[in-house]
Every structure is written in C-alpha cells, then in structure tokens.
C-alpha cells in the first residue's frame, strides 16, 4: 500500500478489480499519480475542475432593477474575452514555431484560430437579438467602460503584427499588469516576424518591401517546391481576413444598436469602428494578389 501526499491511503493499482468496483476499506481510491475514471472514488468534479461556481458568479448587472438584456450583454462580452485568451494562446504558439523554422504546427494553430474567429462573428448574431430600446435601458450604466478598452483584443492585434504603441497611452485606466502585457506584446516578435524568419531560413530575401514581394511571388509560383510555405502564408491571410470580417460585422451591430451616437468610452462609436475597417495585419500578402 502506498500513501497519497496528503496523507490519505491510496487505493489499488490500475488493473486491480477494486480499482473498478471499489471496496469498503479503500473507497475505490487510486494509487498516487493515477486516476480512476467514473463516479466511484472521484476526487475531482466537473464543477471544481472548470470552477463553475466562480465562473457563474462573474455576471453582475449594474442596472437596478436589472435590465433583462444586461445579462445577455455581459455574457457575450465575457465569452469574447475567453475566446480572446485562447486565441492568444494559439497565436503565440504558432509564432514560436515559426521562429523555430516549422511549418506544420503554425498552420494547425492558425486553422484552429480561424474556427474560433468564425464563432466570434456568429456571437454578434446573438447580441443582435437585443433591440436598441432594450439596450438603452442599461447603456448609460456602462460609461465610461467600452470594448475599446479590451486589453486582450489589442494583444491579438499586436501579436498578429498590427502594432500601435499609442494604444498603451490612450488606454488610461490600465492596471500595471495590463500595461506590462501590452508593452511586452509590442516588444516581442509578431506572427509576421515569425513568418519572415521562416522565409529567410529558406533562402528568401525579406529585407525590403520589394524583395519580400518578389520572394512571396516565388513561393506562390512554385507550390510544388514551397507548398508548406504557401500554406502558412494562406493560413496567415485567412486569420487576417477573419479579423477584418469580424470588424465589419461589429460595425453593423454597433450602427444597428446606437446609430451615430458616441461610444460609452468616449470614442466616436460606429464612425471610429468604420475608420479601422481597412486595417490589415499582412498587407504584403494582400499586395501579392495583384502580382499573380
């Protein structure tokens, strides 16, 4: 018999019948470092593993009495932030593998991101079920909070290659941890930096816009030889396109809800969002299309 680090006796080893059926003396516990699947002898529950009570306690409406659609609004935006967290996890890993000279893992990570980004667009359909009148019942309680202040959203832009140091200063209410995160994203290599290092590792010139475009054209015209590089380039472009489509969908949602009113955070609202529709993470990959 072995002992669990907590001091409790551990049960029979995997394969022992008692590990499947349990026994009065051991309660179907498992040996140190092993797990028993199923309800018997369980030490970790679904709720504890996912911290469900803590998660469900985070939706706190500001309106009093609570406006019916405020829970919808809070839930949608909290879910966005969870997806943003996962996107940062996947994009950073893709970047790191690009810097290591790999092509397979970055493409797989970026393909997962594309699926997530399609979900982000679909979530707008959910919030569009809220009428402007219902939004107005609690909108004033949001000020001066705004989606403009999403630190993870800016991290995704910076990590993808669209770096704007001005946001670090414009987001005045950042706590020190958030400010350090944004500055770190500005300082670290982006996905585009990772892709350029990959091209350079394969002997392509990337030091000027003209030479980069010529290198990309060479890859595009010889997919038999450079198929893996082309696939990564296309995965990057799909990520860029998905983000652009999300921006456009978000603008239409904002215009449907508030028209030309200013944003709750003090921005110009929908006009500001429209001013960012033409932004691209990888303009070289878009310019390549005109040369093919």
How would you portray this structure in words?
This protein has 292 residues and is mainly α. 59% of the residues lie in helices and 0% in strands. The protein has a single domain, classed as Methane Monooxygenase Hydroxylase, Chain G, domain 1. Helix 4 (70-99) runs antiparallel to helix 5 (104-127), helix 4 (70-99) packs parallel to helix 7 (151-160) and helix 5 (104-127) packs parallel to helix 12. The longest helix has 36 residues, at 223-258. 20% of the residues are buried.
Secondary structure elements and their pairing?
Blueprint: H1 17-21, H2 46-50, H3 52-56, H4 70-99, H5 104-127, H6 132-136, H7 151-160, H8 166-170, H9 176-187, H10 191-201, H11 209-221, H12 223-258, H13 270-275, H14 283-288
Number of β-strand runs: 0
Radius of gyration: 25 Å
Instruction: Decide which structural class fits the backbone.
Output: mainly alpha
Counted by DSSP, the helix tally is 14
Main sheet specs: none
Task: Estimate the mean pLDDT confidence.
Answer: 85
End-to-end gap: 70 Å
Strand residue content:
under 5%
Quaternary status of these chains?
Answer: single chain
Order of helices and strands: HHHHHHHHHHHHHH
How would you sum up the global shape? globular
CATH class: Mainly Alpha
Q: What would CATH call the architecture?
A: Up-down Bundle
Number of domains: 1
**Poorly predicted parts:** 1-30
Task: Look up the CATH topology.
Answer: Methane Monooxygenase Hydroxylase, Chain G, domain 1
Helix content: 55-70%
């Amino acid at each position: 018999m072995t002992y669990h680090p907590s001091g409790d006796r551990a049960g029979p080893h995997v394969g022992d019948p008692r590990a499947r059926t349990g026994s009065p003396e051991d309660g179907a516990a498992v040996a140190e470092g092993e797990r028993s699947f199923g309800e018997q002898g369980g030490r970790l529950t679904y709720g504890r593993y996912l911290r469900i009570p803590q998660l469900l306690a985070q939706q706190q409406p500001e309106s009093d009495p609570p406006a019916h659609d405020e829970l919808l609004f809070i839930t949608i935006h909290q879910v966005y932030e969870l997806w943003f967290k996962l996107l940062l996890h996947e994009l950073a890993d893709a970047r790191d593998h690009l810097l290591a000279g790999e092509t397979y893992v970055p493409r797989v990570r970026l393909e997962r991101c594309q699926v997530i980004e399609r979900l982000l667009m679909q979530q707008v359909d959910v919030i569009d079920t809220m009428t402007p009148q219902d939004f107005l019942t609690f909108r004033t309680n949001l000020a001066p909070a705004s989606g403009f202040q999403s630190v993870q959203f800016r991290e995704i832009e910076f990590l993808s290659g669209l770096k704007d140091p001005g946001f670090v200063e414009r987001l005045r209410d950042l706590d020190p941890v958030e400010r350090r995160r944004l500055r770190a994203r500005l300082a670290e290599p982006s996905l585009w930096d990772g892709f350029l290092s990959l091209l350079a590792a394969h002997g392509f010139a990337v030091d000027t816009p003209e030479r980069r475009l010529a290198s990309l054209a060479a890859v595009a015209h010889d997919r038999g030889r450079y198929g893996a590089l082309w696939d990564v380039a296309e995965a990057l472009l799909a990520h860029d396109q998905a983000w652009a489509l999300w921006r456009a969908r978000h603008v239409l949602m904002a215009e449907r809800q508030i028209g030309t009113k200013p944003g709750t955070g003090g921005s110009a609202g929908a006009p500001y969002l429209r001013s960012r529709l033409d932004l691209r993470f990888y303009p070289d990959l878009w310019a390549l299309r005109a040369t093919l």
